[in-house]
Amino acid sequence: EIVMTQSPATLSVSPGERATLSCRASQSVSSNLAWYQQKPGQAPRLLIYGASTRATGIPARFSGSGSETEFTLTISSLQSEDFAVYYCQQYNEWYTFGQGTNLDIK
Amino acid sequence: QVQLQESGPGLVKPSETLSLTCTVSGVPINNYYWSWIRQPPGKELEFIGYIHYSGGTNYNPSLKSRVTISVDTSKNQFSLKLASVTAADTAVYHCAREVYGSFNNWGQGTLVTVSS
Q1: How many CA atoms lie within 13 A of B89 on its CB side?
Q2: Strand pairing category for B77-82 and B18-25
């Protein structure tokens, strides 16, 4: 099973600043990686697929990069609605998720 | 607008069968792959399995012996059955639509607690 490890577990950032979230795969997943945002009591929302393609309706401040085993989600200028938990997911070999990064207000 | 909604009992006794239904609106179920994903308290998301509208299924090997996913195209619904549950199966269960590996739409999730 491919293990996805996200860091940090919690990231505290001020509104308007940049946030950088990391995701590492235990073996290569090529570009078969997605990012999701989840707020309390809500369904996860797809942000990025194919490591770097924004899903429909996702603002341009969200960007994804990386390939093989190292991936990054960057939020260029944090808005109040961006504070949430973020998950990465690989779909190169079956489907596995990271444990999440909690992005909170500094 | 695609919407998914889970329904079913929130409490199941140990050794019994967990049964959930996902009702899909905004898109015919006669396309795509339809999945179940769960999240135990304090743990990461775990993929359970998927079904194609044609009836083809694929299950997480760790759960395969206990899982059945079925589809009812006439009602635009698909369902999950998980047999012989234990406390370790306590989780929020989500249904989702898969498109080329990622999950484009999710239900809000329903908490199922396994307890006597």
Answers
A1: 24
A2: antiparallel
Find out whether B49 and B33 touch, Cβ atoms under 8 Å.
no
Beta bridge partners of B111: B92
Nearest CA in chain A to B109: A43
Nearest to A88 by CA among A57, A56, A58, A44: A44
Q: Is B109 on the interface with A (CB under 8 A)?
A: yes
Whole-angstrom distance, CA of residue A49 vs CA of residue A36? 9
Report DSSP letters for A51-78, one per residue: TTEEPTT--TTEEEEEETTEEEEEESS-
Chosen for mutation from B1, B32, B45 (greatest number of chain A CBs closer than 10 Å) is B45
B36: its two tokens: 């179940």
* pLDDT tens, position by position, B105-115: 999 999 999 99
Locate the DSSP E strands across chain A.
4-7, 10-13, 19-25, 33-38, 45-49, 53-54, 62-67, 70-75, 85-90, 96-97, 101-105
- Contact (CB<8Å) B60/A94: yes
Q: How far is A55 from chain B (nearest CA, A)?
A: 8
At which residue do the structure tokens 């909170």 appear?
A104
Q: How far is CA A89 from the centre of its chain?
A: 8
pLDDT in tens, A45-98: 999 999 999 999 999 999 999 999 999 999 999 999 999 999 999 999 999 999
CA B111 → CA A12, A97, B9, B17, B37, distances in Å?
Answer: 29, 19, 9, 15, 12
